[in-house]
């Protein structure tokens, strides 16, 4: 997969793209990550990329030319998904990550501080993605977040040992609690069942805990699930104990 | 404000903490950002920080000692909010950013790949925050995201020119479209009203567009609003035209 990011702050990506899974994925050849400074595509001798808004008001607006020029230069006739990181976009989910992981070619556009000229939104981008209802300084952190979620799904990127954490959203339930050594840490103890060696009981405890946690923290996830008969029994048992 | 991050990948933070608003906020003395490697607090000569899960299963679990030791060492008797970045946590919102911006002292715990020992969750942390329903490699990008959202709210961090973008969530509506020069870019034109110089009409257009966009993309936001009589009229007008 090719991923190309357009940003006004390309240095922000160095640490994240050079560590952990994103580093390994590049070394394995699963993904090529590139970051280009939007300023390189300004037609203005001062490398200006923004200007005052038509109609007045505070703040600056990213001009259309640098963005169109940059996307055209880096795609060179290919037709990638062009993703605008923007608080008004579709909310990012694991399903969207899985969808994007099927592509060969992704371009991410990151604004910073300011609005985008609407013509970028209407005529240049194929997807608008938001990672949530909060205000950030720019689209860089959201782009890194989406890229991390997508790249770890690419074939060969995760080893077996890493891949289990995907379960937390694929079952539709929150994960059960985890414990490791020591069994007694400053008087805080691991539940007996996990030390019992009885795997049927351990599985049962974990499934119950998973339902309990989902019920307490994210009942909306439960509503979206079609439960098996056995799961309905577990849920009824938990509710009766609450 | 003091912000201290505990991570297994401290180098991931360099680019983000050294650029843009987070850089400026540190230079202005509004925030001190520090990142510490959790491995420094391992009691094991191999600097091991994780171990196999009790009860079996794939994946590793972060041990309690290094996390407890690290938090105790860096807080040295102070009582900061200790925030665990975790997909099971409370969903991060602008309201939570505003709440955290009132604090003097925040500690962020970032796991990587794996689960946390439950005793960390139960006895060490004060808040568990998730940035959304997607699977990431670690808590580092979520921590950076929360830190960016919080630090930009601190007094003196944003200049007047930057501060307008906060509006997008404070009005409860999505922003209206923005346009800047050129008025005609490759045949794509700026709406006439914005070039009219009639500020009453421009304000009206913007408010209508803001409602229209919210209605099309995020009707859930509208349901949460108490509309003035004038706003109800605008909404009725838009709906009648759809």
TrEMBL record, chains A, B:
Reactions this protein catalyses: guanosine(37) in tRNA + S-adenosyl-L-methionine = N(1)-methylguanosine(37) in tRNA + S-adenosyl-L-homocysteine + H(+)
Which is an annotated GO molecular function term of this record? tRNA (guanine(37)-N1)-methyltransferase activity
Its domain of life? Bacteria
Localization in the cell:
Cytoplasm
Q: Keywords, A to Z?
A: Cytoplasm, Methyltransferase, S-adenosyl-L-methionine, Transferase, tRNA processing
Q: For S-adenosyl-L-methionine, which residues are the binding ones?
A: 111, 131-136
- The chain's coiled-coil residues are none
PANTHER family documented for this protein: TRNA (GUANINE-N(1)-)-METHYLTRANSFERASE (PTHR46417)
- Family statement: Belongs to the RNA methyltransferase TrmD family.
- The molecule here is called tRNA (guanine-N(1)-)-methyltransferase
Please report the organism this UniProt entry assigns to the protein.
Answer: Solibacillus palustris
Recall the taxonomic lineage recorded for the source organism: Bacteria, Bacillati, Bacillota, Bacilli, Bacillales
Q: Which gene encodes it?
A: trmD
